[in-house]
Amino acid sequence: MTETRSALVIDDERDIRELLVMTLGRMGLRCDTAATLADARAQLARHAYDLCLTDMRLPDGSGMELIAEIAHKHPNTPVAMITAFGNVEAAVEALKAGAFDFVAKPVDLSVLRDLVRHALDLREKRRTNTADPVAARFFGDSPAIATLRQTIAKVARSQAPVYIAGESGVGKELTARTIHEQGPRASGPFVPVNCGAIPAELMESEFFGHKKGSFTGAHADKPGLFQAADGGTLFLDEVAELPLPMQVKLLRAIQERSIRPVGANTEVNVDVRILSATHKNLAALTEDGRFRHDLYYRINVIELRVPPLRERLEDLPGLAGRVLARLAAGQGRSIPVLSPEALEALRAHPFPGNVRELENILERAMAMADGERIEADDLSLPKPQAATSAAIAAGHSHVFGAPPSLGSHIPVVPAPPADPRATGTHAAYDPRSLNPRDTASSRLPEYIEQMERKAIEQALQENRFNKTRTAAALGITFRALRYKLKKLGID
Fold it and tell me: Which residue, 29, 104, 106, 121, could crosslink 24 as a Cys pair with Cβ 3.0–4.6 Å?
């Protein structure tokens, strides 16, 4: 016999209580009600509920207090906030306090039913899922990775938007996918989209879809990414690349939970959880006016930072072993081992590309190694100047004369020599290489240009001349890359 699920409805308006009880009853839930904070606390002390719905304002206190108490004392009970229509600030605060989701008054019953289904799925998942799949994906015992695992487990049970911050290659999409798969929307679609890879003129159509004949080339109706993710999760990777006009439209879609396809006369309701990520400093872009404040605060209800590999070097031996085991299984060969010298070389490497770079290094080393033992030389690691290595390890992404936005791709280029008569460096100075009328200050731009050229050409080769990926790897916008290519005369 199936156990009847139960819900607690807390609201001081009788009509609202009756509407919610009737709707939940038709979904097979047994409902208790409370009109005050005190009544709700008494009910929670007597019974365990599968779901709680609470109003924001109660006669003897705030529903926000109750949300925090339930999150602390009854962590397996999803709680949703009922709030006035348009009160986005209160809804965001409720999500931060531990609410699973929120529903606005007047209550849209279809939205409420979707919310209840997600909440019950989440409750069931918590009951039956005793293993720790997050630990399986995020290997390591370092404090940084342990904190990440704990945070993922917490945010997965919420419906709150999550902003995932981290450098290129740390595993932001893996983090987003894990949040989706451990949450109540796991049975729904997970739709990842690289915001930097969509041309600006096609963005609205790609996100919201279009109707046949709405523009040249629209030969049939096409659903957008929001509709594709309906009932699941939409992951906005490199969200910092969204142009400002699209940011306005995206904000409205997230707040109203509806979209209007290009050329349509009516809006379409969508039930989507938003996860977003970028390797850039989104807060700094917001302060500079390149990213909207309102959208930033809407997608950044919960911020989750994925640590770079250099902050968890104690995990490196085990992580390398797991990568080698996976690569060996894919190639049908025995698992190679790293020599002590190879492991030490890996420890000394700054890993600007993080885990993704480690995977590439080990895959190359397996191809280069003689036998089943990988030596340090098989890793083919670069040997940067000591000062540069120290700067990268300390978190600095640029060296002399290089703009920070070009990141780890900047090659080491010596500074332009000063007048040898002033420095005494006659041995390193070739007077034939310079015009007598040149000065150190006039030669500096040439050196910077040389460094930029080498960095861009290297990045283009590494990304197989895909300009979108090259711009992302360099930490600059696609538009900025096009400008630099034209300026430097690079085809």
Answer: 29
DSSP per-residue string spanning 419-472: -HHHH--GGG--GGGS-TT--HHHHHHHHHHHHHHHHHHHHHHHTTT-HHHHHH
What's the CA gap between 10 and 37, in Å, rounded? Answer: 8
At 88 the pLDDT is 66
Nearest to 184 by CA among 251, 271, 108, 258: 271
Task: Please give, one letter per residue, the 3-state secondary structure of 74-137.
Answer: CCCCCEEEEEECCCHHHHHHHHHHCCCEEEEECCCHHHHHHHHHHHHHHHHHHHHCCCCHHHHH
Q: Which domains does the chain have, with CATH numbers?
A: 6-128 (3.40.50.2300), 133-305 (3.40.50.300), 312-379 (1.10.8.60), 400-427+435-488 (1.10.10)
Coil, helix or strand at residue 214: coil
pLDDT-flagged residues of the chain (< 70): 1-3, 85-88, 122-136, 384-447, 491
3-state secondary structure of 407: helix
Dihedral of alpha carbons 55, 56, 62, 66, sign: positive
Report pLDDT for 437: 44
- Looking at residue 133, its pLDDT comes to 55
**First-last CA distance in the chain:** 71
